[in-house]
Amino acid sequence: MAQDDVFKKVVAHCKEYGFVFPSSDIYDGLGAVYDYGQMGVELKNNIKTYWWQSMVLLHDNIVGIDSAIFMHPTIWKASGHVDAFNDPLIDNRDSKKRYRADVLIEEQIAKYDEKIEKEVAKAAKRFGESFDREMFCQTNPKVLAEKAKRDALHERFSVAMNNVDLEELRQIIVDEEIACPISGTRNWTEVRQFNLMFSTEMGSTADGAMKVYLRPETAQGIFVNYLNVQKTGRMRIPFGIAQIGKAFRNEIVARQFIFRMREFEQMEMQFFVQPGKEMEWFEHWKAFRLKWHKALGFGDAMYRYHDHEKLAHYANAATDIEFKMPFGFKEVEGIHSRTNFDLSQHEKYCGKNIKYFDPELNESYTPYVIETSIGVDRMFLSVMCAAYTEETVSNGETRVVLKLPAALAPVKLAVLPLVKKDGLPEKAREIMNELKFSFNCYYEEKDSIGKRYRRMDAIGTPYCVTVDHQTLEDNMVTLRDRDTMEQKRVAIADLREMLQDKVSITSVLKKLS
Ligand code: GAP
Predict the structure, then answer these.
(1) Domain stop point among 137, 172, 194
(2) What range does the domain containing 126 cover?
(3) Can you give the pLDDT at residue 206?
(4) Residue 370 beta carbon below 6 angstroms from any ligand 1 atom
(5) CATH for 428
């Protein structure tokens, strides 16, 4: 199936089965804002629990907090967000559509990459098994010509971005003859900077209302609380503070479903270390975070690191963990060595001493920070895309199955009476009432058993048990495995023990130790 089609199907599936709905759906939606439905909220909560437990439960030097979304506005001045959290925007005068100038250029770079890939694919087909990709890319004149154009553009773009040279960004768009996808024209305005923070007012105007921002990242809530936590929790460096919470950005190019949203959720951890030890810890967290992703079992080839060439002004090392989405490898998580930039800035702006006194060194210093920052919604999207599978089954029909890791699945066990009579529903309810304290169970009696299995496949339920007439006599049920579709008779009394370990988050956490 073409990757474009996979993505469209995932989006439709999310809506049809209660995972994700457009926000304000009956009012035709609100751009880049989404609601999670009855299945989505369970999957999302499981992702958050997996992250929280892997950070806070598995590390005795990491604790969690939950800071407010509204914070003192000076925080955003200190962090640099008021002055520098901008996107370069350009408008097409004919279509009146607004674009991010950097995205238009990145898409142009991707077009060169696609041309190269097409040449490679054609040659690979022609030469078959004897094809040597590396040799072909180093010698084929067409590939070399496209690569030279691509690299020159990439270099020019990097310099313009580094120097925040808006005129040069516009000139690149003109020189590359990039046209508006709507109007098809190249009638572009100047490039302007646009701040991504949402703002509102706190207090009534008569009292002198204060302009406040909706936080664009959760990290600053951790920085401004680091000393509170360190002192009250008697934490010693190195230690970390974790937080899960909403963040808001007025994204201009809001596309690709829940990949880029205006209201989204982050799971961030700031790890405070002694200056000079940050690179060691950066490597540690880079490795740990990749292991966390891989432990879900989607296959190692789905992930890659992308080390940043251009570092943010506060960072001395940065990498992304990218996931192979249907629309290419994309950032799901960022790991940054943020130096002591944020804490030093807050110290300067609040005018208080927020240094850490290190009892081992007998000296005070501003800690350096390693940050791991992952978007819950992007993680959710990556899981849905990797899990979505269409299979042809033995009777020639297609079944859609979400091969979710059992630990993340919204429902762990469906309990299905074969028919709606003869005491089978009552027996099924009895099983539900027994097991619902251990994991999320789902009862369903409507439609044929085959249809019910398909519905459970579509929401990723790893196990179903069917209660039939025989059950009333021998207290055994038919247990069906989602992925293999194998069925076997098992005693009701053994169900909890058989399944609990398989569906629990602990089973994945154990892979991390
Ligand atoms: N505190 C660092 C920080 O916020 P970021 O790279 O801007 O860094 C971290 O964001 C993560 O948050 C990203 O890797 C992504 O998963 C998620 N994220 C950022 N912007 C997002 C958006 N508009 N919609 C959904 N997720 C987003």
Answers:
(1) 194
(2) 86-194
(3) 65
(4) no
(5) 3.40.50.800
